């Protein structure tokens, strides 16, 4: 998978008074799930669905959180939610997938099914050649708060990459459902913590790359990724101060295609095999100043 590691700092304050409500339904029939269980990861806050599939969670803390929904005979759902203030009422509707959904395909098994040993060996040799070079330059052009966001502005980054190798390289485009973000959080005092994973929806419509999702760069060629909404806290809930941002492009061959309904095609597996492998941190960092009058 392609990973954009975003290194920035944010502090989340807990407060009471917010509400999360919604409905839980069967993803195929859209019938309500009665008696489903929901909880917020890392808290004691939970709820059960009523006859209409509805639920209400009260006294929810401010910040970004993971909402888990479970019911016998269905796959567990994990959804992200962001509460921006104590007075928020957030609606999160959930569609649970029946367990009959195929949950994964082994990547290595598919590779050997679709390609000969010689073909895979040639691809490995190509990547070995790239690994001996400083293949990719990653540069942060800007980081800013998206002011039109109702929660006070999500963190948005512009990132440019450049092919430094003597060969053509292939990068993967940026889709939320394929990403796992990590963030090293550093404030102006130098205090650092680490959030290891932000949950992403693996059943999103665009979840398996194909040839249209490859960015091919010739030696010396550059590409700027479109501004991406980072899966982080909104600016408004950050304390005032200076925050440091570093972006890392990282891709390694997946072990599984998870959360997909159909068996990935040969073209799709080849896309993953062709993509540049390795970890490439940005050569620069971005210092973002956040000013919040109430913090």
Describe this structure in words.
The chain is mainly beta and 295 residues long. The chain folds into 2 domains: 2-11 and 102-290, no CATH class; 18-96, Immunoglobulin-like, CATH 2.60.40. Helices cover 11% and strands 44% of the residues. The chain has helices at 107-114, 117-131, 266-274, and strands at residues 2-7, 18-26, 37-40, 46-48, 54-60, 63-70, 77-83, 89-91, 94-96, 104-106, 136-145, 154-163, 169-172, 181-186, 192-198, 214-217, 222-234, 241-251, 256-258, 278-281, 286-290. It is flat and about 60 Å long. The chain starts with a strand and ends in a 5-residue tail after the last strand.
What is this entry, summarized?
11% of the residues lie in helices and 44% in strands. By secondary structure, the protein is mainly β. Mean pLDDT is 77; it is low at 1-15, 176-181 and 193-206.
């Amino acid at each position: 998978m392609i990973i954009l590691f975003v290194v920035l700092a944010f502090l989340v304050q807990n407060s009471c008074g917010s509400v999360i409500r919604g409905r839980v339904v069967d993803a195929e029939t859209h019938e309500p799930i009665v008696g489903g269980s929901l909880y917020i990861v890392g808290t004691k806050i939970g709820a059960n669905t009523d006859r209409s599939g509805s639920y209400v969670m009260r006294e929810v803390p401010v910040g970004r959180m993971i909402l888990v929904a479970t019911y016998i005979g269905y796959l567990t759902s994990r959804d992200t939610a962001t509460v921006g203030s104590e007075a928020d009422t957030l609606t999160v509707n959930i569609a649970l997938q029946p367990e009959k959904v195929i949950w994964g395909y082994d990547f290595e098994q598919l590779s050997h099914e679709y390609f000969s040993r010689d073909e895979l060996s040639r691809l490995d040799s190509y990547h070995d050649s790239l690994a001996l070079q400083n293949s990719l330059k990653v540069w942060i052009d800007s980081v800013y708060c998206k002011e039109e966001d109702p929660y006070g502005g999500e963190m948005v980054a512009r990132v440019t990459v450049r092919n430094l190798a003597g060969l053509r390289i292939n990068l993967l485009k940026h889709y939320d459902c394929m990403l796992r973000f990590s963030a090293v959080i550093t404030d102006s005092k130098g205090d650092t913590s680490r959030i290891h994973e932000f949950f992403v929806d693996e059943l999103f419509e665009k979840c398996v790359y194909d040839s249209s999702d490859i960015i091919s760069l010739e030696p010396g060629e550059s590409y700027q990724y479109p501004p991406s909404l980072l899966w982080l806290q909104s600016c408004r809930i950050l304390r005032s101060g200076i925050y440091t941002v570093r972006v890392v492009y990282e891709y390694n061959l997946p072990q599984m295609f998870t959360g997909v309904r159909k068996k990935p095609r040969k073209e799709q597996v080849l896309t993953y095999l062709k993509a540049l492998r390795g970890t490439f941190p940005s050569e620069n960092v971005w210092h973002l100043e956040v000013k919040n009058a109430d913090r």
